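Reviewer 2 asked us to include a model.

Predict the structure of this chain.
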Amino acid sequence: MSTAQKSKSKVKQAKAITLKGSTEIVTDFFKFAVNAILYHRNVYPTDDFQMVKKYGQVVLLTQDLGLEKYIETVLSQVKEWLNSGTITQLVIAIVARESKITLERWVFDINLTLPPQPTEENPEPAAIPPKPDAEIQAEIRAIIKQIISSNTFLPTLQEPTYFTVLAYTNDNPNSVTPEANTPALWIESDPMAIEQGKTQQVKLKSFDTKIHKIDAMVEYRHG
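Predicted model (structure tokens):
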């Protein structure tokens, strides 16, 4: 007499993302988003960039050592602010080199969601449900694709430009000096807003790690 036995199979469960893990994802996204903006909006020469594979598609990274170091320095501070929950918005402003007029503002709103803290009634900390990495990457890929196609819906930049990074924190807005070969020094700044009545906005996709939600949009000067 034989006894039927159930076949054993391993059940795998996705790990809940941590604040540190979410910060790494968001920081990485900003790195590739900034590079995509600088390339596709012709802020830096196209020859300064190389193709790499990321998020299941080909993206571009700068080969300019000064610019690369500058972006790394900026994002190292952004990473600290993400970990501490103090950054609420990151803005990439594209400015006309001679007139100093802001032509575009790429705005990334940063919303932080943390699980409720343990209480006497509920001593066990609540866990944030996991989100598949493939789903997060698909959402990021959608934003990068919109940046890549931005030349189809944004005005052509007719003059030489540079870029500035603005970081809004819970305390006050800050900016970083725009020159790529200058060390990143965060100072208080005006928002580098586009003149009222001459601005249009295009809302972009968003992505959510379950801890950080990034809402994106670009506003540009017209007329």
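The longest helix spans residues 19-40. The helical segments are 19-40, 65-84, 133-148. We have added this to the supplementary material.
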